[in-house]
Amino acid sequence: MNDCIFCRIIAGEAPATILYADEQVTAFYDIHPITPVHILVVPNRHIESVNEVEEEDAKLLGHLVVVARHLAIANGLERRGYRLVINTGPDAGQSVFHLHLHLIGGRSMPFRFQ
């Protein structure tokens, strides 16, 4: 997908600080962080959102979470805590339509809906 910024980052065609990459996923810093640690973990294959996930994607989604856990530990977040968030659709805050998991942490985050 030539117009997808995440696909371009994965292909090395757009700049990003890559923290992890393998044959299934790539992780990099969010350019608009909302917490001191804000990392995106994205599947290398373009999937628009959770709405397009199929049964055969279950292992890939699990891998996203495992990679996020390793990155949380690498960033010292395991003791105090962190959040894993997947936004689906514009009303949920999804602004890039390539499935991605936000790993956020490094400060207290009270739970609240506004």
From TrEMBL:
Catalytic residue list: H100
GO terms of molecular function: catalytic activity
Record-annotated HIT domain positions: 5-113
Listed Pfam families: HIT
InterPro entries for this protein: Histidine_triad_CS, Histidine_triad_HIT, HIT-like, HIT-like_sf
Motif Histidine triad motif in this chain: 98-102
Name of the molecule in the record: HIT domain-containing protein
